[in-house]
UniProtKB/TrEMBL annotation:
InterPro entries named among the record's database cross-references: Class_I_gatase-like, PdxT/SNO, PdxT/SNO_CS
Gene Ontology terms, MF aspect: glutaminase activity; pyridoxal 5'-phosphate synthase (glutamine hydrolysing) activity
The keyword rRNA-binding is annotated on this UniProt entry: no
Source organism: Clostridium aciditolerans
Protein name: Pyridoxal 5'-phosphate synthase subunit PdxT
Similarity comment: family membership: Belongs to the glutaminase PdxT/SNO family.
Subunit structure as annotated in this protein's UniProt entry: In the presence of PdxS, forms a dodecamer of heterodimers. Only shows activity in the heterodimer.
Superkingdom of this protein's organism: Bacteria
Residues forming the catalytic site: 78, 170, 172
Matching CDD domains: GATase1_PB
Pathway(s): Cofactor biosynthesis; pyridoxal 5'-phosphate biosynthesis
Entry keyword set: Glutamine amidotransferase, Hydrolase, Lyase, Pyridoxal phosphate
Record-listed L-glutamine binding positions: 46-48, 105, 134-135
Amino acid sequence: MKIGVLSIQGGVREHINHVKALGADAVEIKKLEDLQGIDGLILPGGESTAIGKILRERNLLNPLKEKIILGLPVWGTCAGMILLAKEIDSEDITHLSVMDIKVRRNAYGRQIDSFETEAAIEGITQEPIPLVFIRAPYIVGVGDKVKILHKLNGNIVAAVQDNILVTSFHPELTKDLKFHKYFLELCNKPNISCTNIC
C-alpha cells in the first residue's frame, strides 16, 4: 500500500514516519504526477488559505478533488479538515469542498491557546490516546452522511464520510499510531479502493 502525504506545510515527515511504522509505503506529494498510484492521501496541518493557494498555483486542486470524489481515501488533519469542508464558517471561499461539513477556523484561539488532552474514541481505541490541538478548527455542522467519531466539550473534532476522514487534532505529533492504523484500514476497503482510478 502506498500513502501520499501532501508536502506543502505541516507535519509531513511525522505522518510519513507513522505510515511507515505500520508497514505501508509513504511518499511526498508535491506535483500532479506524484498522485499516480497512491492508495490514500493525507493532508497535514498548516495554514489552509496558503495551502489552498498553492494547490491552485500547482494545478493540484481540481485533480485532487476529482480523485477524492472518485473514491481516493483522504485524511485531513487540522488545516486539512478545512481544505476538505464544503463550508467554512464566516467565509465565502472553500477549497476542495468534498465533505459535507461546516468548519470554524481557529476555533480554539491563537497559537498560545493550543493544548493537549486524552480521550478514548469509539471505533478506534478503547483506551485514551493523546490529542494535540494547535490553532485547531472544529466542525459546527454536518450532513446526513457524516459519522461523528468524537466530540470534545460538545464540539465535533473527528468525523468520517465514506472515504473522507477529518480530525481537528494532530495524531502525527504523538507516538500513538491508532489513528493512522484506522486510516490505513479505510484505504483497504474494497468499495473505495483507488487502485484502478488514480
